[in-house]
Amino acid sequence: MSIRRNVLSVLLVAAAIVGCQFPPAGAATQSASSHHVVATFSYSGSAASSRDLHLVIRVDGVIRYDAPVVARFCGSMCSPDFLVSGRPVVHVVNLGRRNRRDVVLDLFSGGAHCCTIERVYEYDVKTRTYLEFEHDFGDPSAPLVDLARNGRYEFVSADDTFAYRFTDFAASGLPIEVVAFANHRFNDVTRHYRGLVADDARKWMLAFRGEATQHFSDSVGLVAAWAADEDLLGHGRLVHRFLVAQAAAGHLNDGLGDREPSGRAFVITLDHFLVRRGYLP
User: Phi, psi at residue 25, to the nearest 5°?
Assistant: First the structure.
């Protein structure tokens, strides 16, 4: 079975499962708390078609934030992101260097391939309220993980700019992306987690090798994700030699015919793209 049909099957199964996981229609409330901070998120309607999204944050029992949830990307039309079974959509965690508790809200814009919106609410001592920040991760989810086990959490996602870039979505590989929030900014810190990047690279290489059963008929999206991971690890020369050899062997093809470059032209296009995206110097 090709990687495209595998991915499609997974997506269809996931869609069927997710459809059974949404909370029932009506008013719903979800809360999270940690270290004297309590965040309460509420909405009405079904999770997939919600309205009246609202967030209240209390610190030591005192309301420090009380406002409707309005995202820059999708305004008041966002929905709570319940795409992962059992995962809450509101979190109280430490994201930055200071020993404070930030509030994170997982939102979804709707649509087949868009978009995971993460909103961060950071407490401001001067104004005694919460400042709002937002990041659009595109199609991939972005769960919070304490990767260094130091009490500070990062968003573990994938680079959505690779979607559709060299082939169709189903055959596109999205290299791992780790994003931290500090100093009022979202920062790409993927390079700091070499073990995760190496594991991701092995995954994409395995998928690329698996395309041999289909005569590498749609392989460029997968090898692009592998190349990005390996370049982050500083293996640029190895990547280039491998891609040139695969191009000579006729293994770098896309499923869109003449719409996207294949072979050596793909290698050149990929190099330029990886430079623009910061994977290559």
Answer: -65, 155
Domain boundaries, the chain: 5-158, 195-276
Residue with tokens 């005694």: 128
Between CA 30 and CA 106 the distance in angstroms is: 12
Q: What pTM does this model have? A: 0.86
Three-state secondary-structure class, residue 192: helix
Can you tell me the distance from the alpha carbon of 168 to that of 221, in angstroms, rounded to the nearest whole number? 8
For the chain, state the CA radius of gyration: 21
Nearest to residue 91, comparing CAs of 114, 122, 115, 48? 122
Q: What are phi and psi of 52, to 5 degrees?
A: 55, 40
State the pairing for strand pair 49-59/37-46.
antiparallel
- In the three-class reduction of DSSP (H, G, I as helix; E, B as strand; rest coil), residue 244 is classed as helix
Residue 43's nearest CA partner among 83, 84, 76 is 76
The per-residue pLDDT for 160 is: 96
Residue 14, SS3 per DSSP: helix
Q: For 262-274, what is each residue's pLDDT tens digit? A: 999 999 999 999 9
